Amino acid sequence: MELDDVEAVAVAYALYKRHQKAKKQKSYNRRYWVHPINLKRPQEGQFQVNFMSLRAHPEEFTKYYRMSIPTFDELISLVRPYLTRQVTNMRSPISEEERLTITLRYLATGTHFSSLHFEFLAGVSTIAMIVRETCEVLWEVLQPKEMAEPTTDDWKDVAKGFFEKTQFPNTVGAVDGKHNIRLECPKNSGSLYYNYKHFFSLILMAICDSNYCFRVIDVGSYGKESDCNVFKTSAFGKKLYTNRTNFPENQCLPNDNLGVPQPFVLVADEAFALHKNLLRPFPGRSLNDQRRIFNYRLSRAHQYIECSFGIMSKKWRVFQTSMLVEPETAVKITKACCVLHNFVRRRDGFNTEDTQSSMQSITERRGVGNSPTNAKDVREYFVQYVNDTNHALDWQTNVICH
């Protein structure tokens, strides 16, 4: 390389470094260490203004936080050690109560982080980080308490509850998939998250009990997947379809004259594959009067999972809008809502607002493949049971007329 060329390269490099320095200085001059608006947070932030005022009015507190004051106090005592941040010379950290409040307001409203920024006077990136970290903490702390893996005795209790409320025997849960966890189109995802309802989503697969509490969940499958495939590939589904669940031993159905022990079962819709431990309704092309009655009796038990999804979506309205977050964060948000749903229901019960419009629309979906003979035998046994005069409901024959 000639001398002139070397000098030209040196000059160009010097100009480049000067430009980069000027650009960096310009960028630095445009930004604040803490924006002046956010400096007002200790005096004018929504948490500082409203928290103590709301505690003086329990009904308003419940509307705002979606839980009662005692339930909130119990929750903050559980998560406080994991939300505490160190005080430094540079600034005071956001308190544990405020971190939980920001997260609960996001889950309760589904509003954008930019809106919460103006309400709580914290940076948008700070709001996003708080929501993500707090959702992780809620799942880690509450899951062992509120959604622990059911034992055999737990399954028995669930079956007892379903029979008392729906008169459908040996039922250890209702299972279904929720496709309404909306996302903005994730980057480089193609059509993986595009579901049959024509928007981008994740799938929440869940099993609930007769108290509308979730016992088992699986979150994060692509929206385009079918419920059957999602359930089969989930950790619990693999156990069920390989006969490795801890369901109770086969038991005779209540007051059954034939006295043939039957397996404990999950109830599902036509999107699932029939199994000896999972019952689905008969398709329309093979219906007779007895099977119509069986489908009706099965649907009375299965509607509990539809209502569970509806109650959760009514309380935590983040599910009623598209989440402007990455899929990984959406999974954390969904898992946090599920354990919060259980936590609040077991302490506060439910109110009228939660149950209004709680039934999700049931979309007709095609059934799946042929079923093993023993699974068909189990279903036929249940058909005979619910049609027996000793176990029939007074109004169940009305479905034959429709």
From TrEMBL:
Residues 352-371 are annotated as: Disordered. InterPro entries: HARBI1-like, HARBI1_dom. Residues 180-342 form the DDE Tnp4 domain. It holds the Pfam family DDE_Tnp_4. The keyword Nuclease applies. One of its GO terms (molecular function) is hydrolase activity. GO terms for cellular component: nucleus. It is found in: Nucleus. Its main location: nucleus. Its cofactor is a divalent metal cation. The keyword Signal does not apply. Keywords: Hydrolase, Metal-binding, Nuclease, Nucleus. This is DDE Tnp4 domain-containing protein.
